[in-house]
Structures
1.
Amino acid sequence: MLVGILALQGDYFLHMQALDKLNVKHILVRDSKSLYKTDGLIIPGGESTVISKMIYRNNMNNDLIKYAKSNSIYGTCAGAIVMSSKINDYIVKPLKIINVQVMRNFWGRQIHSFSENIKLSFTKKYFNATFIRAPKFKILSNDLTILSNMENEPILIRNKKHLISSFHPEIGNDLSIHEYFVKMIDK
């Protein structure tokens, strides 16, 4: 298995470290050619407007949409925003990979960043999640499964192939969510 990490902008380095700790082979993806070498993809957090612009500037948008039909993608924070179907503003062009509407910066601005212990549906332990200008998700279809909530808001969601989180699982030492995503790729 080879996992790609979209490396156009954002915190891809910490995702590399997480995959290293799990002994999962990975490459940085900066173009469509390298994308198609991978079995699954992580779109990291960062600045969603920049990531979106870089995807379109590098002509990767159609390839990412095509890739998503047969491969798993995990979007964290800004990555989730890019993967969404609808966004509350017109700055980001969504790829419409997962059927959620996104409200950017719902959990506060950069200065309001925080960590919270959250419950994950697939493990008994709590996960310390870091929220940095985190988006809110509104579920738009019944093919989605909520894997974690906070304050009655879904913060970790999947469909059959894809996973999104409003927080940054790459910050910290708990690899539970990365392990979960790798298992999704294997299915």
2.
Amino acid sequence: MRWSSVRGFSLIELLVVLVVIGTALTIALPKAAALRQGMLLDGAAQQVLGDLQRAQFEAIKRNQSLKVVLTGPTSYTVQFIGARELDGGVQFVSAPDTMRFASFGPPALSSGPAIYVLRLGSREKRVEVSAAGFLRVR
């Protein structure tokens, strides 16, 4: 059997492929991590928004005021619904300790909108509740 007739890859060819794969991973991994962080933060903001909307609807349905209470940097409780937790390391940076929705829907705010600021790493999202009861994510 002659060496020139044996098929396969040389060590140089394998090393070139490994260098190309390593370079591609070095470029792609930080962007993938930032994308994951953004998705976790967006998901947490949508969770808070949905729970506030549900609390507002529940207050109207029950015809009584209902409150949402911040219980920790990553947790809150919605009266009549239960405890909720933020996932993926997302935390409240600032938020009202208690948000009360009146029996006819709007929140009982003393002045201006109530703002829930969520943070993951260096990124932030804001969930705002206006005095009229409109909710949005910024």
3.
Amino acid sequence: MLNISGINIVYVTTTILLLSTFGIFATGINTESFDPFLILTGRLGLILFVLSFGASKFHAIFRAGWSRQLLINRRYLGIASALTMFVHFVWIYAQALIMPEWWAEISLYDKISGNVTLILLCMMGMTSNDVSVKYLGLKNWKRLHVIGSYVALWSFAMEYIFI
């Protein structure tokens, strides 16, 4: 049976992102090829983020084997979420370079909140290791991850719930 836990979560996510990226090139570079990929990466990033962010709450509520696995794999789910969202933003900027009229239609609020969220998610993804916890100190590391998580939660909520 396939073991999708630990670092394998990141490997599977990377494989999905690479394979779906080929879809953009196979269909040609245009809005019709970007849109499904942006939807895929946005929703995959959301799912991975919710699983990572909510792992302790899920386990507190359900006390099941699957919720324990979420706790055990929380770091890798978070890294996979950060990686997915980084690729999502790379393709947004690629589309903006290719189709500036599309970029001009995006609100300033969405551009600013997207960039702030990207920076925080990248910082959280890069510091999701024991060396960073030691270097930053547990207090600063937690502060970064709590603030970054709530900013990301806000951005996802604004994108998928309120707008």
